[in-house]
Structure formats: C-alpha cells, structure tokens
Automatic annotation (TrEMBL):
GO terms for cellular component: membrane. InterPro entries: MATE_fam (IPR002528). Pfam families: MatE. One of its GO terms (molecular function) is antiporter activity. This is Multidrug and toxin extrusion protein 1. Keywords: Membrane, Transmembrane, Transmembrane helix. The keyword Secreted does not apply. The chain crosses the membrane at residues 47-72, 92-113, 125-149, 253-273, 293-310, 322-342, 354-376. PANTHER family: MULTIDRUG RESISTANCE PROTEIN (PTHR11206). It comes from Phytophthora fragariae. Belongs to the multi antimicrobial extrusion (MATE) (TC 2.A.66.1) family.
Length: 391
C-alpha cells in the first residue's frame, strides 16, 4: 500500500496521507485475510449435497451401455458369448475414440466453468461452452471415421469384429447428442444446477425400465464418480471465489469420504464377487474367471476411488496436465509392465493384468497426493483462478 502526501515542501511528520493507492497484491491479501475459517461440518454437508444428484446422473449415464452388455449375455442364443464380446468391444472403441478424446477435450470446462462461476463471471461460462461446441464438432469427424471402419480397426475374430462394427455404426447418431449433453452438463454442474441433469438422465433411460437387474450394487461404485465431480465443482468454485482455505478443506474432506466409501464398496464387491459376473454371463468358465478377477480387484477399488476423486480435485484446480502425466507414467511405466510380467511370465493370466493395473493406480494416487501436499500453494491457485476468470 502506497501513501501519497500532496502538499510538498512542508513537514509531513505525523500527518495523514491525502491519497492512498492500493496495489492489486494488497487487495488479494486483504481478501484472503477476510476469508472466514471454513467449518468442517458445513463443508461435508455441501459436498454431500453435490454428490447425490451427480451420483444419480452418472448412474443413468452408465446404464445404457451396462444394459446392452447384460442383455447380450442373457440372450437365449448359442451366439450369446459373441454378442457380449461385440457389445464390449464396441463400447471400448466408443470409449477410446469418442468418450476419452471428446469428453477429455470437454473436461477443460470442469476448470474454466467452475472457477468462472466462483468469480461471478457468468458471461465467461457462455464463451467457454461455445468454444467447446466448435472443438467437439471437429472431433466428430474422427469419431465417425473410426466407428464406421470399426471392423478393420478391431482386428479380432471375424464374426466378433463384424458384430462390433454393426453395433458401433448404430451408435453413431447418438454421438453428437452425447457431446451436446456433456457440454451442457459441465456448464450446469459448475453452477450447482443439478436437478435438470437427473431428470434428463432418467427420461433418457425410460426405454430400459424393463431391464431391472439389481443395479443398486453398481450404484455404490458410481458414488465415487459422483464424489469426483462434486470435488471438482467445490474446489473450482472456492478457488474462483478467492477462498483457498475452503478449497483446501474441500479437498481433504473429499479424499476422506472417498476412502470410507471405497473401503465399504470393496468389502461388498468381494462378498458378491461370485454373483455379479452372472448378471452379464450365464454360468460357465467365463463367469468363474470373472469371479476370480473381481475377488482380486475388490481391495484395489480403494486406490481406484482415490485416484478418481484426485482427478476431480486436479480439474477443479486447473492442474489437468499434471494429473494426466502422472497417470500416464504410472500406467505405462509401472502398471502395464508389471501386469504383463505377472500375466505372461508368472502365468497369472488376466488376474495378473488387473493386479498390474491396480499397482499403476496406487502409484498414481501416491504421486497425486504428494503433489497436492508439497507442490501446491492454495493462495496461488486462487490467484490463478481469478486471473483465468477475468481474462
């Protein structure tokens, strides 16, 4: 803060300054000092209020693909295993070429929109959504090309590849609407507007009402994804509003709640590891193998959940690049090599592959937590969020 005395030449000792100039840095420091100490109980309530609608929305977003595989596995046909493989491969291709790329591009809105809302710059949210429409429209060209030529890309058994290609082509008309929904969802979630998303997701799944296969257990897994989105929204809103202490508390609570829920889910998953695979497949070797894999994987769901929520926190803080690099290194430098060694050298098969993936998750979580603890300055993150929102 700079004080200026205008009447030069006189003794100014002890006199009050006539003009006071306050630097931006002083404004920021004063804003931080005015931030009240966040209350843990209130922050838990806020986070859980966000989790519920997000969890329900995510559940219904997950439902169509889940139902497709379940119905394929329970068809009264000798070709049911091929139908399951085709539906699974098609969904995998859609995830790689459409969901991962397109929605990965859209994830920039997780940071930008949540921080803009916290900074009360609602006009910026509209600009970000318009930019997202342009970017995802260009990406549609790649999605349509890969889905149309899926049979050649698959490189699997001829019958499975043919069925997968047909499945993928029939899904093409829905991709533009998926992108439009995703952009709308991110803009609304950033503003804590969640109820319309639940209604839309329920209506979109009305045709699946007859396929009630006990989704309550799956819903438990989606709580982790709901927590990830809730952490993203809360951290981004707080940083955009210049509340670094509250953002840090939201981070801590999100991780602790996730640990408790993931541990509970791990116990349930292990307890029902023999029954869940039979929702997808009739009794047989495939179902037995899936049961073994699920029993091995269930304890690792804790690190999977923590990784999922950590990703949401990093998106809220605008640190997607760090999270992406961390996960890529953890999986490609550790998870995949270890999984391949266990599967092929130690003859553990698919169980070894999944165990390697779990090790990659554990390494990623450990690194992300250390980055948050030792490399983040929350006050600096709040400054960056305000600057980003005011560009």
């Amino acid at each position: 803060m700079i004080h200026v005395l205008l009447d030069r030449g006189e003794d100014n000792y002890g006199r009050e300054p006539l003009v006071t100039i306050t630097s931006p840095a002083c404004h920021r420091e004063r804003g931080r000092s005015e931030e009240l100490k966040p209350q843990t109980s209130e922050e838990v309530k806020t986070l859980l209020k966000l989790v519920g609608p997000v969890m329900v929305t995510t559940f219904f977003e997950f439902l169509p693909g889940f139902v497709s595989i379940v119905l394929a596995g329970n068809m009264d046909s000798p070709h049911a295993p091929q139908y399951v493989n085709a539906a699974t491969f098609s969904k995998m291709l859609l995830t790689l070429m459409s969901t991962a790329v397109g929605l990965g591009l859209a994830s920039a809105l997780d940071t930008l929109c949540s921080q803009a809302y916290g900074a009360k710059r609602l006009d910026k949210i509209g600009e970000y959504v318009q930019t997202g429409v342009i970017v995802l429209s260009v990406n549609l060209l790649l999605v349509f090309a890969t889905s149309w030529y899926a049979e050649e890309i698959m490189g699997q058994d001829a019958d499975v590849a043919r069925l997968s290609a047909s499945f993928s082509r029939w899904m093409l008309p829905g991709i533009p609407f998926l992108y439009a929904y995703e952009l709308t969802r991110k803009a609304l979630q950033a503003q804590n507007i969640l109820t319309p998303l639940v209604i839309i997701a329920v209506i979109g799944n009305a045709v699946n009402i007859g396929a009630d296969y006990g989704f309550q257990l799956v819903d438990l897994a989606l709580e982790l994804q709901g927590l990830s989105v809730a952490a993203n929204i809360r951290v981004g809103n707080c940083l955009g509003a210049g509340l670094p202490k509250t953002a840090r508390l939201a981070r801590t609570i999100a991780l602790r709640v996730t640990f408790g829920l993931a541990a509970t889910f791990a116990v349930l998953l292990y307890s029902f590891s023999g029954e869940i695979p039979r929702l997808f497949l009739s009794a047989g070797e495939s179902a037995d193998l899936a049961s073994k894999v699920m029993a091995i994987w269930s304890p690792l769901t804790v690190v999977v959940g923590l990784n999922c929520v950590s990703q949401g926190i990093f998106r809220g803080a605008g640190k997607q690049k760090s999270a992406a690099i961390t996960n890529a290194v953890a999986y490609y430098a550790m998870g995949i090599p270890v999984g391949a060694y266990l599967a092929f050298q130690c003859d553990l098969g698919v169980e070894g592959l999944w165990f390697g993936a779990g090790i990659g998750d554990a390494l990623a979580v450990g690194t992300l937590v250390l980055l948050m603890k030792y490399c983040w300055t929350w006050e600096k993150l709040a400054d960056q969020a305000k600057e980003r929102a005011n560009l």
